[in-house]
Write a structure and sequence with these properties.
This protein is mainly alpha-helical and 195 residues long. It has one domain: Hypothetical protein af1432. It contains eleven helices and no strands. It is globular, with a radius of gyration of 17 Å.
């Protein structure tokens, strides 16, 4: 059992997201985690290089890669249920913590110190806001993509998610929304070729 960690991580591709919604473009937590890592890294670079606030974009990306790893064991609980009440939210946090602990036990002892901060949340304190914002940005992009695919199922989620992002009042998010989100409305021909 002590060498099963990466085999578990590879199973992220079997855990679907948005289970209560009709999806034109199915998404799993492995795909989602990759996009959140890309976005968290971008937000970290914006924080560091545009806003000139000390930040470690690589840490943000790494934390984002593992941010949903507990769902390998718990599955993806839909947001309306997860946040229905404080009791459910707190109970689910305990289940997530237990799942992360169980995943850590599948690593050899000498590797656990490197992964424990990523799974337990210790490393997340420094970049938690960036990873959370990247998670929301990923959801927002998913909504845009579904709308563009002709699926109206995500319209209200798109409006609500954009509102949350704007109200976050994070300059990194504002920068990303202004400079990068418009391109998600374009098709491949409109994006053009790379010269």
């Amino acid at each position: 059992m002590k060498e099963n960690f990466f085999a578990y991580i590879s199973r992220m591709r079997y855990i679907g997201r948005w289970s209560l919604m009709r999806n034109s473009l199915p998404e799993n937590i492995q795909e989602h985690s990759h996009m959140v890592a890309v976005l968290a890294h971008a937000l970290g670079v914006i924080r560091r290089d545009v806003l000139h606030v000390p930040c470690d974009p690589e840490l943000a990306a790494t934390v984002a890669l593992f941010h949903d790893s507990s769902e390998i064991l718990t599955g993806d609980l839909p947001t309306p249920i997860k946040y229905h009440s404080r009791e459910i939210r707190d109970a689910y946090k305990q289940v997530e913590a237990l799942a992360c602990h169980k995943l850590l036990e599948t690593l050899p002892e000498e590797l656990r110190p490197a992964y424990e901060p990523l799974l337990s949340g210790e490393a997340q304190a420094h970049v938690h806001d960036l990873v959370k914002a990247a998670d929301k940005l990923s959801a927002y992009i998913k909504c845009i993509e579904e709308r563009k695919a002709g699926n109206n199922e995500f319209l209200s989620a798109e409006i609500q998610t954009r509102k949350i992002l704007v109200e976050s009042r994070m300059p990194e998010v504002d920068y990303f929304l202004e400079h990068f989100i418009p391109a998600f409305e374009l098709n491949l021909d409109e994006l053009g070729t790379i010269d």
